[in-house]
Automatic annotation (TrEMBL):
<keyword id="KW-0648">Protein biosynthesis</keyword>
<feature type="compositionally biased region" description="Basic and acidic residues">
    <location>
        <begin position="267"/>
        <end position="277"/>
    </location>
</feature>
<dbReference type="InterPro" id="IPR000555">
    <property type="entry name" value="JAMM/MPN+_dom"/>
</dbReference>
<dbReference type="Pfam" id="PF01398">
    <property type="entry name" value="JAB"/>
</dbReference>
<dbReference type="GO" id="GO:0005852">
    <property type="term" value="C:eukaryotic translation initiation factor 3 complex"/>
</dbReference>
<dbReference type="Pfam" id="PF19445">
    <property type="entry name" value="eIF3h_C"/>
</dbReference>
<dbReference type="GO" id="GO:0016282">
    <property type="term" value="C:eukaryotic 43S preinitiation complex"/>
</dbReference>
<dbReference type="GO" id="GO:0033290">
    <property type="term" value="C:eukaryotic 48S preinitiation complex"/>
</dbReference>
<dbReference type="GO" id="GO:0001732">
    <property type="term" value="P:formation of cytoplasmic translation initiation complex"/>
</dbReference>
<comment type="subunit">
    <text>Component of the eukaryotic translation initiation factor 3 (eIF-3) complex.</text>
</comment>
<dbReference type="InterPro" id="IPR037518">
    <property type="entry name" value="MPN"/>
</dbReference>
<dbReference type="GO" id="GO:0008237">
    <property type="term" value="F:metallopeptidase activity"/>
</dbReference>
<dbReference type="InterPro" id="IPR045810">
    <property type="entry name" value="eIF3h_C"/>
</dbReference>
<keyword id="KW-0963">Cytoplasm</keyword>
<dbReference type="InterPro" id="IPR050242">
    <property type="entry name" value="JAMM_MPN+_peptidase_M67A"/>
</dbReference>
<feature type="domain" description="MPN">
    <location>
        <begin position="23"/>
        <end position="157"/>
    </location>
</feature>
<dbReference type="InterPro" id="IPR027524">
    <property type="entry name" value="eIF3h"/>
</dbReference>
Amino acid sequence: MAGLNFAASIGKKAKEDIPVTNVQVEGIVVAKIIKHCKECLPNFVTGQLLGLDIGSTLEITYSFPFPNKVEEAGGDEDEDASYQLEMMRCLREVNVDNNTVGWYQSTFVGSYQTLELVETFMSYQESIKRCVCIVYDPQEAAQGSFGLKVLKLKEKFLNLFKEGKVTATTLNQEGVTSKDMFQELPITVTNSSLVSAMFNVLQSDGQADQGTFDRLTFVEPDLLERNLEFMMESVDEYHGKIYQVSQYHRMSARHELQHQQWLQKRKQENAARRAAGEDPLTEEDPNYTPLTEPSRMESFLISNQTTNFSEKVVTLGGQALQKLCIVESLYQK
C-alpha cells in the first residue's frame, strides 16, 4: 500500500507540473453554453464546467447553468454552493463526469477582463489548480465569429496576486506586464461518431444558400461605434489611473521630505543634548508611516481592455473592407 500511495503522489505531482496547453470541448457543451447565454440576454450568466484533466489536455464533457440571481432575488452564496453540490450529486448518480474543471460566463463586446474574473480564478485555484474559464460573446458570434474563448491566469501573475504584490516596484522587478495576466488557450470542439454522421447527412452539396450570402453582410455600424466608445472610455479610465499614480508620487515625495526635515531637526537636537551631557532622544518618528503604493491591478485590466477593443475595431474594419472588395468584384463580373 505504501508503494501505491507513493506512486500516486508522484503521479499527482507530475500531473500538476504539466501545464494545460489545449482544451477539448464536447459539441453538446458548446451548444448548451450558447443557448444559455442567448436566452438570458441582456443579463450576464455563468455556469459550471465538468470534465476530465488528462495530461496537457483539459476535456470538458458537461456543463450546467447557475441560477440567475436577477430572477431569484435574495439568493446567497450558501444557496449557490448547495445548488452546485446537489447538481453534481445527481450527475454522479447517472454516471456523468462530475469533476469541476472551471466555469463559463457571458460577456458584452469583449468586456470580460475585470477584477471579478481574477478573483473568481483565485477562488477556484484554492481547490482546483488547473481550471479554465470559457467566455462567450453573443455580439461577436452574431458577426460570424466563433465567440468562445478559453482563458486561464498565467502562473507568475497568479503568484504575485496571491501574495498581494501587484505594485509597480514588484512588477518591474519580475518583468510582468499587462500581457502577462491572461493566457488564451486553443479550443477543440469534438463530437461523437453519430453526431458527425448526422452533420455529413445534413451538409449541403456545395450549393449556395441564404446562410452563404449572409456572410457578405456588412458589419453593423452600431457594433463598430460601440467598440470605439468603449475604447475611448477605457483610455479615459487609464488616464485617471495615471493621475492617481502621479498624485501618489507627489504625496510620497512630500511625506518623505517632511520626515527628512524632522529627522534633521532631531539630529541637531541630539547633538545639542550630547554637548550638554544629556541622553539623546530617539531618532525614530512615531508618526511616520510610508505611504502604501497603489495596486496596478486595475491599470493592467484597463490596458488589456483597451487593447482588446482596439483589436476588435481593426478586425471589424478589415472585414468590412474585404467584403466591399468582394462585392465590387462580383458587380464588375
